[in-house]
Amino acid sequence: MTIPEERIERLHSLAYEAATASNQDRAREYVRLARRIAERNRVDLPRRFKRFTCDRCDSYLRPGSNGRVRLQDGHVVVTCDCGEQARYPY
Ligand SMILES: [Zn+2]
Which residue segment(s) compose the domain that 39 sits in? Predict the structure, then answer.
């Protein structure tokens, strides 16, 4: 793993922990920071990072708490509290 990848992993864990502690503002800061590092270093964000973050408001999604997950037509549909929806094949 490269250093930017390691930093992103670390920020992902921190965002998860903050979201678990209902500290959404802090979780959002970690998500934004990780996105910035990925952009600057041209590395891809891990798949689970993309799946559990909202593209619109940068929230770290915790289904059942600030997001909903549904299965629809062979897709996983993740809905954030801000209204943004993301769908992924599974
Ligand atoms: Zn959102």
Answer: 3-89
State how many domains the chain has: 1
The span from the CA of 4 to the CA of 7, in Å, is: 5
Task: Output the CA 63–ligand 1 centroid distance in Å.
Answer: 12
Tell me the pTM.
0.90
DSSP symbol at 47: H
How many Å lie between the centroid of ligand 1 and the Cα of residue 79?
Answer: 8
Distance 24 CA to ligand 1 centre (A): 11
Over the stretch 25-58, which tens digit does the pLDDT of each residue have? 999 999 999 999 999 999 999 998 999 999 999 9
